[in-house]
Amino acid sequence: MSNGKKEQRKAGRPKKNKDLNTNNILRIALKNFAKKGYGGVTISKIAKETGVADSLLHYHFKSKDGLWKKSMQLIGKEIHSELNDLFKLIDDLDGLEKLRLYNKKIVHVSAKYPEFQQVVVQEVFSDNPRSAWLIDELLQPIFAPMQNIIKAETAKGRIKDIPPANLTSFIIGSITTLFTRSFQMKKMHGIDSLDEKQIDLHVTLINDLIFNGLVKR
Question: 3-class SS at 159?
């Protein structure tokens, strides 16, 4: 028999919100991590910005580390999916042409997801669990196609035999720096690095400079 009182939920388990947009929360969280760094973000701040209760964020993501990983996974998987779609289309092309198109795609996804690249730059300078997870879980799969193409074309004698660490850091750094330092580019050079014309120009210049130095004549 009912005693007229509402049944109470067990403490520590917030009521589920069927309309909770976790992807939107993760994108907002990523923008915060990119802008403020890992140490400058708290779940309570994300809760306030998204209008979601702290307890609900803790329920879904467990901790700030869980929120950070989920936000990076969301964008990392989107980037990886775009690259997979590209390679399905260019599978039969010449290796060097594949590399040109891969570089073009990386330029565009770097411009599309600048916060992802900014967080990567923040994390990979030091040896810590987040950095190790980021490299193993997301960066290796994203950059493996480039490394495989370079290895195959080097074996054929078509491109110079440059140590992988030097070559990949040169290519990746050249591609992403324009977008990870967008404020610097605007302040120093008066350009909006996320403008479509600047992105297309960057594609042209990157491939021209990389291939002029990479391909054997």
Answer: strand
